[in-house]
Amino acid sequence: MENLCTQAYLYDQMARREFGPFLCGIDEAGRGPLAGPVVAAAVILPDTLNQEWIYDSKKLKPAEREELYQVIVERALAHGVGVIDHTYIDQYNVLQATYEAMRTALRQVATTMPQIDMVMVDGATIPNVQYLQRKLIRGDHLSQSIAAASIVAKVTRDRIMENYSKIFPDYGFERHMGYGTPEHLQALAQFGPSPIHRLTFAPVKAAVERSASSSKCGDRRKETGRQAENLAISNLLEKGYHLLVQNWRSMFGEIDAIMKDGDTLVIVEVRSRVGYCKERNLSTAAESINGQKQQKLRRLAEAYLQQVSSFNQVRFDVVVVSFKENAKEAQIEHYISAF
Protein backbone atom coordinates (compact mmCIF):
# COMPACT_ATOMS: atom_id res chain seq x y z
CA MET A 1 0.00 0.00 0.00
CA GLU A 2 2.81 2.43 0.86
CA ASN A 3 4.37 1.97 -2.57
CA LEU A 4 1.01 2.58 -4.29
CA CYS A 5 0.47 5.77 -2.27
CA THR A 6 3.94 6.98 -3.20
CA GLN A 7 3.26 6.32 -6.89
CA ALA A 8 0.01 8.31 -6.70
CA TYR A 9 1.85 11.22 -5.07
CA LEU A 10 4.60 11.10 -7.74
CA TYR A 11 1.98 11.09 -10.52
CA ASP A 12 0.61 14.36 -9.19
CA GLN A 13 4.11 15.80 -8.92
CA MET A 14 4.67 15.08 -12.62
CA ALA A 15 1.31 16.66 -13.46
CA ARG A 16 2.23 19.77 -11.44
CA ARG A 17 5.43 20.14 -13.41
CA GLU A 18 3.46 19.83 -16.68
CA PHE A 19 0.38 21.95 -15.93
CA GLY A 20 1.04 24.01 -12.79
CA PRO A 21 0.85 23.63 -9.02
CA PHE A 22 -2.93 23.74 -8.58
CA LEU A 23 -4.33 20.32 -9.53
CA CYS A 24 -7.97 19.65 -8.68
CA GLY A 25 -8.87 15.98 -8.23
CA ILE A 26 -12.54 15.00 -8.54
CA ASP A 27 -14.30 11.75 -7.72
CA GLU A 28 -17.77 10.57 -6.74
CA ALA A 29 -19.45 8.13 -4.38
CA GLY A 30 -22.90 6.61 -4.67
CA ARG A 31 -23.71 6.04 -8.32
CA GLY A 32 -24.68 2.42 -7.76
CA PRO A 33 -26.88 2.40 -4.63
CA LEU A 34 -30.66 2.03 -4.72
CA ALA A 35 -31.21 4.86 -2.24
CA GLY A 36 -29.77 8.18 -1.16
CA PRO A 37 -27.77 10.85 -2.99
CA VAL A 38 -24.77 10.77 -5.25
CA VAL A 39 -21.88 12.77 -3.77
CA ALA A 40 -18.83 14.23 -5.49
CA ALA A 41 -15.78 15.91 -4.00
CA ALA A 42 -13.16 18.20 -5.50
CA VAL A 43 -9.80 18.61 -3.76
CA ILE A 44 -6.66 20.67 -4.38
CA LEU A 45 -3.77 19.33 -2.30
CA PRO A 46 -0.42 20.91 -1.49
CA ASP A 47 2.64 19.08 -2.76
CA THR A 48 3.78 18.26 0.79
CA LEU A 49 1.64 15.18 1.55
CA ASN A 50 4.14 12.55 0.41
CA GLN A 51 4.04 10.84 3.83
CA GLU A 52 0.26 10.34 3.91
CA TRP A 53 -1.33 7.06 2.79
CA ILE A 54 -3.92 8.72 0.55
CA TYR A 55 -5.31 6.11 -1.84
CA ASP A 56 -8.54 4.79 -3.34
CA SER A 57 -11.23 5.02 -0.62
CA LYS A 58 -12.54 1.55 -1.49
CA LYS A 59 -9.20 0.05 -0.45
CA LEU A 60 -9.32 1.63 3.01
CA LYS A 61 -11.07 0.59 6.20
CA PRO A 62 -13.76 2.97 7.56
CA ALA A 63 -11.51 4.12 10.41
CA GLU A 64 -8.67 4.82 7.97
CA ARG A 65 -10.99 6.83 5.73
CA GLU A 66 -12.20 8.91 8.67
CA GLU A 67 -8.65 9.65 9.78
CA LEU A 68 -7.52 10.61 6.27
CA TYR A 69 -10.67 12.69 5.75
CA GLN A 70 -9.57 14.92 8.64
CA VAL A 71 -6.05 15.21 7.23
CA ILE A 72 -7.38 16.12 3.79
CA VAL A 73 -9.92 18.77 4.82
CA GLU A 74 -7.45 20.35 7.25
CA ARG A 75 -4.47 20.46 4.89
CA ALA A 76 -6.05 20.83 1.46
CA LEU A 77 -5.60 24.17 -0.26
CA ALA A 78 -9.29 23.95 -1.15
CA HIS A 79 -12.03 21.34 -1.21
CA GLY A 80 -15.69 21.22 -2.14
CA VAL A 81 -18.54 18.73 -1.98
CA GLY A 82 -21.61 18.33 -4.20
CA VAL A 83 -24.64 16.36 -3.00
CA ILE A 84 -27.41 15.56 -5.51
CA ASP A 85 -30.45 13.78 -4.11
CA HIS A 86 -32.60 10.90 -5.33
CA THR A 87 -35.25 13.17 -6.90
CA TYR A 88 -32.70 14.67 -9.32
CA ILE A 89 -31.39 11.17 -10.07
CA ASP A 90 -34.89 9.94 -10.92
CA GLN A 91 -35.61 12.98 -13.07
CA TYR A 92 -32.37 13.20 -15.07
CA ASN A 93 -30.57 9.83 -14.48
CA VAL A 94 -27.62 9.04 -12.26
CA LEU A 95 -24.93 10.05 -14.78
CA GLN A 96 -26.32 13.57 -15.12
CA ALA A 97 -26.68 13.72 -11.33
CA THR A 98 -23.00 12.74 -11.01
CA TYR A 99 -21.94 15.49 -13.40
CA GLU A 100 -23.99 18.03 -11.47
CA ALA A 101 -22.47 16.90 -8.17
CA MET A 102 -18.99 17.28 -9.69
CA ARG A 103 -19.76 20.74 -11.05
CA THR A 104 -21.14 21.78 -7.65
CA ALA A 105 -17.99 20.58 -5.88
CA LEU A 106 -15.77 22.33 -8.44
CA ARG A 107 -17.66 25.61 -8.07
CA GLN A 108 -17.07 25.49 -4.32
CA VAL A 109 -13.33 25.03 -4.88
CA ALA A 110 -13.25 27.89 -7.39
CA THR A 111 -14.68 30.33 -4.84
CA THR A 112 -11.53 29.98 -2.72
CA MET A 113 -9.02 29.03 -5.47
CA PRO A 114 -9.51 31.22 -8.53
CA GLN A 115 -6.51 29.57 -10.23
CA ILE A 116 -7.03 25.92 -11.16
CA ASP A 117 -4.36 24.63 -13.55
CA MET A 118 -5.83 21.19 -14.27
CA VAL A 119 -8.96 19.25 -13.31
CA MET A 120 -8.32 15.52 -13.06
CA VAL A 121 -11.45 13.37 -12.95
CA ASP A 122 -11.82 9.69 -12.16
CA GLY A 123 -13.17 7.99 -15.27
CA ALA A 124 -15.11 10.94 -16.71
CA THR A 125 -14.98 14.25 -18.50
CA ILE A 126 -17.40 16.75 -16.95
CA PRO A 127 -19.60 18.62 -19.45
CA ASN A 128 -19.94 22.42 -19.27
CA VAL A 129 -16.72 23.04 -17.32
CA GLN A 130 -14.36 25.79 -18.42
CA TYR A 131 -11.15 24.31 -16.99
CA LEU A 132 -8.61 22.09 -18.69
CA GLN A 133 -9.55 18.49 -17.84
CA ARG A 134 -7.88 15.10 -17.83
CA LYS A 135 -9.93 11.89 -17.62
CA LEU A 136 -8.11 9.18 -15.71
CA ILE A 137 -9.34 5.60 -15.72
CA ARG A 138 -8.82 4.22 -12.20
CA GLY A 139 -7.83 7.73 -11.27
CA ASP A 140 -8.24 7.05 -7.56
CA HIS A 141 -5.34 4.56 -7.94
CA LEU A 142 -3.16 6.78 -10.12
CA SER A 143 -3.53 10.26 -8.60
CA GLN A 144 -3.24 11.38 -5.00
CA SER A 145 -5.61 14.30 -5.65
CA ILE A 146 -8.34 12.05 -7.07
CA ALA A 147 -7.80 9.55 -4.24
CA ALA A 148 -8.27 12.38 -1.74
CA ALA A 149 -11.52 13.37 -3.49
CA SER A 150 -12.71 9.76 -3.37
CA ILE A 151 -12.14 9.68 0.41
CA VAL A 152 -13.96 12.98 1.03
CA ALA A 153 -16.90 11.90 -1.16
CA LYS A 154 -17.15 8.46 0.44
CA VAL A 155 -16.96 9.69 4.04
CA THR A 156 -19.48 12.47 3.35
CA ARG A 157 -21.97 10.10 1.75
CA ASP A 158 -21.56 7.43 4.45
CA ARG A 159 -22.35 10.02 7.10
CA ILE A 160 -25.48 11.07 5.18
CA MET A 161 -26.67 7.46 4.94
CA GLU A 162 -25.95 6.83 8.62
CA ASN A 163 -28.19 9.79 9.44
CA TYR A 164 -30.89 8.43 7.12
CA SER A 165 -30.69 5.09 8.93
CA LYS A 166 -31.93 6.83 12.08
CA ILE A 167 -34.93 8.22 10.21
CA PHE A 168 -35.67 4.99 8.29
CA PRO A 169 -34.34 2.26 10.60
CA ASP A 170 -36.05 -0.64 8.81
CA TYR A 171 -33.61 -0.67 5.87
CA GLY A 172 -30.18 -0.97 7.54
CA PHE A 173 -28.69 1.95 5.59
CA GLU A 174 -25.88 2.30 8.15
CA ARG A 175 -24.57 -1.13 7.09
CA HIS A 176 -24.90 -1.16 3.29
CA MET A 177 -25.16 2.60 2.55
CA GLY A 178 -28.02 1.98 0.14
CA TYR A 179 -26.30 -0.59 -2.07
CA GLY A 180 -28.35 -3.56 -3.25
CA THR A 181 -27.20 -6.13 -0.71
CA PRO A 182 -29.39 -9.17 0.13
CA GLU A 183 -30.33 -7.47 3.42
CA HIS A 184 -31.38 -4.31 1.61
CA LEU A 185 -33.37 -6.18 -1.06
CA GLN A 186 -35.17 -8.15 1.64
CA ALA A 187 -36.10 -4.95 3.49
CA LEU A 188 -37.24 -3.39 0.22
CA ALA A 189 -39.49 -6.37 -0.45
CA GLN A 190 -40.89 -6.28 3.09
CA PHE A 191 -41.38 -2.54 3.61
CA GLY A 192 -41.47 -1.13 0.09
CA PRO A 193 -39.44 1.93 -0.95
CA SER A 194 -38.59 4.64 1.56
CA PRO A 195 -38.84 8.34 0.64
CA ILE A 196 -35.12 8.35 -0.32
CA HIS A 197 -35.16 5.34 -2.68
CA ARG A 198 -34.38 5.86 -6.36
CA LEU A 199 -37.64 4.90 -8.03
CA THR A 200 -36.10 4.55 -11.51
CA PHE A 201 -33.68 1.82 -10.40
CA ALA A 202 -34.85 -1.68 -11.38
CA PRO A 203 -35.05 -3.35 -7.93
CA VAL A 204 -36.93 -0.35 -6.54
CA LYS A 205 -39.25 -0.30 -9.56
CA ALA A 206 -40.00 -3.98 -8.95
CA ALA A 207 -40.83 -3.27 -5.30
CA VAL A 208 -43.20 -0.49 -6.36
CA GLU A 209 -44.91 -2.81 -8.86
CA ARG A 210 -45.30 -5.53 -6.22
CA SER A 211 -46.76 -2.95 -3.87
CA ALA A 212 -49.22 -1.79 -6.53
CA SER A 213 -50.33 -5.34 -7.30
CA SER A 214 -51.14 -5.90 -3.63
CA SER A 215 -52.77 -2.49 -3.11
CA LYS A 216 -56.20 -4.00 -2.56
CA CYS A 217 -54.85 -6.15 0.26
CA GLY A 218 -53.04 -3.10 1.55
CA ASP A 219 -56.27 -1.10 1.60
CA ARG A 220 -57.93 -3.82 3.64
CA ARG A 221 -55.00 -3.87 6.05
CA LYS A 222 -55.17 -0.10 6.43
CA GLU A 223 -58.89 -0.27 7.18
CA THR A 224 -58.31 -3.03 9.75
CA GLY A 225 -55.49 -0.96 11.25
CA ARG A 226 -57.67 2.14 11.55
CA GLN A 227 -60.43 0.08 13.17
CA ALA A 228 -57.94 -1.45 15.60
CA GLU A 229 -56.56 1.99 16.57
CA ASN A 230 -60.05 3.33 17.27
CA LEU A 231 -60.95 0.31 19.39
CA ALA A 232 -57.66 0.51 21.31
CA ILE A 233 -58.11 4.22 22.06
CA SER A 234 -61.71 3.69 23.16
CA ASN A 235 -60.56 0.93 25.51
CA LEU A 236 -57.91 3.16 27.10
CA LEU A 237 -60.33 6.08 27.41
CA GLU A 238 -62.66 3.80 29.34
CA LYS A 239 -59.76 3.08 31.71
CA GLY A 240 -59.36 6.78 32.45
CA TYR A 241 -56.60 7.67 30.01
CA HIS A 242 -56.74 11.01 28.21
CA LEU A 243 -56.11 11.21 24.47
CA LEU A 244 -53.65 13.94 23.52
CA VAL A 245 -53.27 13.16 19.82
CA GLN A 246 -53.99 10.30 17.41
CA ASN A 247 -51.65 9.49 14.51
CA TRP A 248 -49.03 12.09 15.48
CA ARG A 249 -46.51 12.45 12.66
CA SER A 250 -43.02 13.84 12.31
CA MET A 251 -40.13 13.37 9.88
CA PHE A 252 -39.20 10.22 11.83
CA GLY A 253 -42.54 8.46 11.36
CA GLU A 254 -45.87 8.16 13.14
CA ILE A 255 -47.15 7.34 16.63
CA ASP A 256 -50.54 5.60 16.68
CA ALA A 257 -51.71 7.45 19.79
CA ILE A 258 -50.23 9.70 22.46
CA MET A 259 -52.15 9.55 25.72
CA LYS A 260 -51.88 10.65 29.32
CA ASP A 261 -52.18 8.29 32.30
CA GLY A 262 -52.05 10.48 35.39
CA ASP A 263 -48.76 12.38 35.13
CA THR A 264 -47.25 9.88 32.69
CA LEU A 265 -47.04 10.38 28.95
CA VAL A 266 -48.01 7.13 27.23
CA ILE A 267 -46.84 6.28 23.71
CA VAL A 268 -49.32 3.74 22.39
CA GLU A 269 -48.45 1.29 19.62
CA VAL A 270 -51.46 -0.63 18.26
CA ARG A 271 -51.12 -4.05 16.65
CA SER A 272 -53.98 -5.86 14.91
CA ARG A 273 -54.30 -9.61 14.54
CA VAL A 274 -56.83 -12.04 13.11
CA GLY A 275 -57.58 -14.85 15.55
CA TYR A 276 -57.16 -14.70 19.32
CA CYS A 277 -54.80 -16.54 21.62
CA LYS A 278 -53.60 -14.59 24.65
CA GLU A 279 -50.20 -16.29 24.91
CA ARG A 280 -49.56 -16.03 21.20
CA ASN A 281 -50.61 -12.38 21.06
CA LEU A 282 -48.26 -11.44 23.89
CA SER A 283 -45.44 -13.22 22.06
CA THR A 284 -46.19 -11.78 18.64
CA ALA A 285 -46.72 -8.29 20.04
CA ALA A 286 -43.29 -8.36 21.66
CA GLU A 287 -41.68 -9.86 18.55
CA SER A 288 -43.27 -7.35 16.21
CA ILE A 289 -41.88 -4.44 18.26
CA ASN A 290 -38.27 -5.32 17.52
CA GLY A 291 -35.22 -3.32 18.52
CA GLN A 292 -35.35 -1.08 15.47
CA LYS A 293 -39.04 -0.33 15.99
CA GLN A 294 -38.46 0.40 19.68
CA GLN A 295 -35.63 2.77 18.78
CA LYS A 296 -37.87 4.50 16.24
CA LEU A 297 -40.69 4.95 18.79
CA ARG A 298 -38.25 6.36 21.35
CA ARG A 299 -36.98 8.83 18.77
CA LEU A 300 -40.55 9.84 17.96
CA ALA A 301 -41.28 10.30 21.66
CA GLU A 302 -38.21 12.54 21.99
CA ALA A 303 -39.39 14.60 19.03
CA TYR A 304 -42.83 15.01 20.61
CA LEU A 305 -41.36 15.97 23.99
CA GLN A 306 -39.35 18.73 22.30
CA GLN A 307 -42.69 20.31 21.50
CA VAL A 308 -44.40 19.45 24.81
CA SER A 309 -41.93 19.43 27.69
CA SER A 310 -44.38 19.08 30.60
CA PHE A 311 -43.90 15.32 31.22
CA ASN A 312 -41.20 13.82 33.40
CA GLN A 313 -42.27 10.20 32.88
CA VAL A 314 -42.78 8.41 29.56
CA ARG A 315 -44.13 4.91 29.05
CA PHE A 316 -44.51 2.72 25.98
CA ASP A 317 -47.66 0.57 25.87
CA VAL A 318 -48.72 -1.98 23.26
CA VAL A 319 -52.38 -2.72 22.57
CA VAL A 320 -53.11 -5.87 20.57
CA VAL A 321 -56.53 -5.95 18.91
CA SER A 322 -57.39 -9.50 17.83
CA PHE A 323 -60.28 -9.74 15.39
CA LYS A 324 -62.25 -12.93 15.00
CA GLU A 325 -62.47 -14.39 11.53
CA ASN A 326 -65.58 -12.38 10.69
CA ALA A 327 -63.69 -9.17 11.66
CA LYS A 328 -66.76 -7.91 13.52
CA GLU A 329 -65.79 -8.90 17.05
CA ALA A 330 -62.47 -8.11 18.67
CA GLN A 331 -60.49 -9.06 21.76
CA ILE A 332 -58.28 -6.31 23.21
CA GLU A 333 -55.11 -6.95 25.22
CA HIS A 334 -53.24 -4.03 26.80
CA TYR A 335 -49.57 -4.49 27.69
CA ILE A 336 -48.33 -1.70 29.98
CA SER A 337 -44.63 -0.76 29.72
CA ALA A 338 -44.22 -3.32 26.94
CA PHE A 339 -40.58 -2.29 26.39
From TrEMBL:
Family: Belongs to the UPF0102 family. Belongs to the RNase HII family.
InterPro entries (UniProt xref): Restrct_endonuc-II-like, RNase_HII, RNase_HII/HIII, RNase_HII/HIII_dom, RNaseH-like_sf, RNaseH_sf, tRNA_endonuc-like_dom_sf, UPF0102_YraN-like
PANTHER family: RIBONUCLEASE H2 SUBUNIT A, RIBONUCLEASE HII
Segment forming the signal sequence: none
Top EC category: hydrolase
Protein keywords: Cytoplasm, Endonuclease, Hydrolase, Manganese, Metal-binding, Nuclease
UniProt binding sites for a divalent metal cation: D27, E28, D122
One Pfam family here: UPF0102
Listed EC numbers: 3.1.26.4
Gene that produces this protein: rnhB
Catalytic activity field: Endonucleolytic cleavage to 5'-phosphomonoester
Main location: cytoplasm
RNase H type-2 domain location: 21-213
Name this protein carries in UniProt: Multifunctional fusion protein
Cofactor(s) annotated in UniProt: Mn(2+); Mg(2+)
Species of origin: Sulfoacidibacillus thermotolerans (Acidibacillus sulfuroxidans)
NCBIfam families: PRK00015.1-1, PRK00015.1-3, PRK12497.1-3
Comment on bound cofactor: Manganese or magnesium. Binds 1 divalent metal ion per monomer in the absence of substrate. May bind a second metal ion after substrate binding.
Gene3D superfamilies in alphabetical order: 3.40.1350.10, Ribonuclease H-like superfamily/Ribonuclease H
GO molecular function, one term: RNA-DNA hybrid ribonuclease activity
Gene Ontology BP term (one): mismatch repair
Highest rank taxon of the organism: Bacteria
This protein's GO CC annotations: cytoplasm; ribonuclease H2 complex
CDD domains for this protein: RNase_HII_bacteria_HII_like (cd07182)
